[in-house]
């Protein structure tokens, strides 16, 4: 049994604060890097490459990141990632200070940033059930969502301010944030690989990488929930792009456009803070049903209701509802998955939902060009209504599986990857 301090959440607090600092640094770099490239090259297309490289690195590193998180001590994995980020942020700050930065150096930072973030996310989320009591797991997942929104809001705001002072300052602050996160992780208890982790095969192997995919596809609840999350992220990204792009082309003041984006972040943060209470009110799979149908109604409202502030308020309302459904699904995902598979399952879920969000701006631009704002938003509303209806009728979500199902290996799994048998349950947390 873990020490009392860990069971009370002391370890989770260390992980949460360290990860929040990382989220802050990541969000700061995400808004600053394209602006620096634009100033350096004068090319919007090259500035866009930076964001693509970061997203591509995160997605490509996703499956290996999950395998690494299941094979090695997750605390050590996070320490190495933080050390790498301290180094690259520090080097880039020095290059910018000396006015010696180049496009390859910025691309290199984006590559390390994306890959290290994927590893950190997989290891950090997979260790949550070992740091909190089972009855507090959903609250911990909701707090993680709040951390992400808070980090994004603080990072994007600070990034612009620091860049205006001196172009090296965002990376000086980012380096210090990652260094503080590294120090906090040193006080976290080691997280050795779970029993049943495949120690006798290479980390990067086809069967090992795909085990997270097989686990999810073998469980109807996880499969349906992930499809819902991916579709929702994709269509939210499409709708957000349509709203922002159409506002800009219509001549809306850029300040108001910025307020709309800020309302989205504020809504998500408040929703994440309210998620523990809402989960106690919305029992069973109701959080997913409520979010999907709210998405449908609010998207229709964005399409038909007048007013310059209306889209931002409704986007914020959608963002407010989303963390409750996310906390519900992620909590069951973690409890249904044995510790030996959690890193890979977390990575697959992140790739699926993140991939949908990554291609959403492209799809949104095509929809806006072909159909226009009104028809495009109504089309998204119709498709989301079909998804919400099918989800509401799905027996996989009505019959919520018991966490004990995680003790058995999924159909067709490699015996070497199987979880420990039921006769040797995991330690009580």
Your description of this structure?
By secondary structure, this protein is mainly alpha-helical. The protein is built from 16 helices and no strands. It has helices at residues 4-7, 10-41, 44-60, 62-71, 74-97, 103-126, 128-131, 137-165, 169-186, 206-218, 220-249, 254-281, 286-304, 310-336, 342-393, 395-398. Helix 5 (74-97) runs antiparallel to helix 9 and helix 12 (254-281) crosses helix 14 (310-336). The longest helix has 52 residues, at 342-393. The chain starts with a helix and ends in a 31-residue tail after the last helix. The model is unreliable at 1-8 and 403-429 (pLDDT under 50).
Give the topology, please.
Blueprint: H1 4-7, H2 10-41, H3 44-60, H4 62-71, H5 74-97, H6 103-126, H7 128-131, H8 137-165, H9 169-186, H10 206-218, H11 220-249, H12 254-281, H13 286-304, H14 310-336, H15 342-393, H16 395-398
Mean pLDDT: 80
> Count the strands?
0
End-to-end CA span: 6 Å
Low-pLDDT segments, ≥5 res: 1-8, 403-429
| Helical/strand content category | mainly alpha
Instruction: Provide the gyration radius in Å.
Output: 22 Å
Describe the main β-sheet briefly: none
Shape label: globular
> In what range is the share of β-strand residues?
under 5%
Given the structure, what is the number of helices?
16
Helical proportion, percent range: over 70%
Order of helices and strands: HHHHHHHHHHHHHHHH
């Amino acid at each position: 049994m873990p020490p009392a301090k860990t069971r009370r959440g002391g370890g989770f607090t260390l992980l949460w604060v360290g990860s929040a600092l990382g989220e802050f640094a990541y969000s700061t770099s995400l808004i600053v890097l394209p602006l620096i490239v634009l100033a350096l090259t004068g090319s919007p297309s090259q500035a866009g490459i930076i964001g693509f490289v970061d997203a591509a690195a995160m997605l490509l590193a996703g499956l290996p990141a999950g395998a690494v998180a299941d094979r090695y001590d997750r605390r050590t994995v996070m320490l190495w990632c933080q050390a790498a980020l301290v180094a690259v942020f520090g080097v880039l700050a020095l290059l910018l200070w000396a006015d010696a930065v180049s496009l390859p150096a910025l691309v290199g930072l984006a590559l390390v940033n994306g890959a290290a973030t994927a590893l950190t996310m997989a290891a950090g989320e997979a260790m949550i059930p070992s740091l909190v009591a089972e009855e507090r797991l959903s609250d911990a997942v909701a707090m993680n969502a709040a951390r992400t929104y808070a980090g994004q809001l603080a990072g994007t705001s600070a990034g612009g301010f620091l860049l205006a002072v001196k172009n090296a300052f965002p990376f000086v602050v980012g380096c210090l944030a990652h260094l503080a996160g590294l120090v906090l992780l040193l006080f976290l208890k080691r997280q050795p690989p779970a029993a049943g982790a495949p120690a006798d095969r290479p980390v990067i192997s086809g069967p090992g990488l795909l085990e997270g995919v097989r686990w999810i596809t073998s469980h109807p609840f996880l499969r349906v929930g992930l499809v819902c999350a991916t579709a929702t992220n994709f269509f939210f990204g499409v709708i957000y792009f349509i709203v922002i792009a159409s506002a800009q082309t219509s001549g809306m003041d850029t300040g108001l456009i910025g307020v709309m984006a800020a309302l989205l972040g504020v809504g998500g943060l408040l929703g994440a803070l309210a998620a523990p209470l809402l989960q106690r009110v919305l029992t069973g799979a109701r959080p997913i049903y409520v979010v999907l149908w709210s998405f449908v109604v609010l998207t229709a409202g964005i399409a038909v209701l007048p007013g310059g502030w209306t889209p931002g308020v409704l986007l914020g309302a959608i963002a407010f509802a989303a963390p409750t459904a996310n906390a519900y699904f992620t909590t069951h995902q973690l409890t249904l998955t044995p510790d030996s598979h959690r890193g890979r399952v977390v990575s697959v879920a992140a790739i699926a939902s993140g991939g949908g969000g990554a291609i959403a701006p492209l799809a949104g631009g095509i929809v806006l060009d072909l159909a226009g704002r009104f028809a495009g938003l109504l089309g998204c509303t119709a498709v989301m209504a079909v998804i919400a209806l099918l989800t509401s009728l799905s027996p996989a979500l009505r019959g919520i599986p018991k966490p004990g199902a995680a003790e058995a290996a999924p159909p067709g799994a490699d015996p070497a990857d199987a979880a420990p048998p039921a006769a040797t349950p995991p330690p009580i947390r």
